[in-house]
Amino acid sequence: MQGRRNKKIEAELQTVLDEGGNVWAIGDVHGHADTLTALLESLNLGSKDRVVLLGDLVDRGPKSCEVIKIARDDPQIFSVLGNHEEMMLMSFDADNIETMNAQQSSWFYIGGRATAQSYIDEFTRQDGGIYRFELRQRAGQDLAWLDALPHHIVLDDFRLVHAGYSPWDGDLDLQSTDTLMWVRGEFHNSITPVDENRTVIFGHSTMPGFGLPQSKVWESEVELLNSRPAAIGIDSCCYGGNEPQLTAFNLQTGDIVKQQLVKRN
Question: Is 253 within the bounds of a domain?
């Protein structure tokens, strides 16, 4: 399936940049709502500023339900779809949330169990029972919201995407959702820019995976004609590693802000 864009979102973000406002891209949150909240607070967002979450809002961390609520409820935050949201769309079962069926096994194995538990935690009564109607209602709303997210955002100088693009598959706007949400090596190792005019800002691939400490970001050695990197990876591996943290990149200024993992009950 071809990747989806949202021209209204793109126009809004481009207007913010054109008028001197800040647009912050944030890497994979993976259910760490408290860390996301702390990072957002440190950005000191003005009313005209905007944030784009680069997918993988869910799984692995303890509060995926809350992360989705933050992203859905804040009009200054936009998101693109990541591979973990895609798996959630295919596997989440609010009617059987306490048990794992065969369809869910692969998703649960790579972090989906924590996402299901975050919904259980959100809708558990004091007596230990579950508000099942409210849970199903929230799950339905969240899944519908996820299912409408764009797979990438294209601006004048940037492309924002979860994983990246293939240098071999032609027109970037016609590339498949599988590529946009899953690609790694062929994109990272491309010897020419996949887009000659735009820097690709992406998550999905962690800094340790590039052989870098989590305090860094990955920049392609390939440059655009204006000397900007052809691609910048900002997934600092919020869910693990020696220094789990979340990274924000400012499209207006090039500034980078990091937030160490926050753990709260």
Answer: yes
pLDDT in tens, the chain (265 residues): 899 999 999 999 999 999 999 999 999 999 999 999 999 999 999 999 999 999 999 999 999 999 999 999 999 999 999 999 999 999 999 888 888 777 788 999 999 999 999 999 999 999 999 999 999 999 999 999 999 999 999 999 999 999 999 999 999 999 999 999 999 999 999 999 999 999 999 999 999 999 999 999 999 999 999 999 999 999 999 999 999 999 999 999 999 999 999 987 6
| Number of domains into which the chain is organized | 1
**Angstrom distances, CA of residue 148 to CA of 26, 79, 144, 186:** 19, 10, 6, 28
Beta strands in the chain (DSSP E): 23-26, 50-53, 77-79, 152-154, 158-161, 199-206, 218-219, 231-235, 245-250, 256-260
Look at residue 265 and tell me if it is in a domain: no
CATH for 217: 3.60.21.10
| 2 within domain boundaries | no
> What is the domain range of residue 254?
7-260
CB 232 within 8 A of CB 244: no
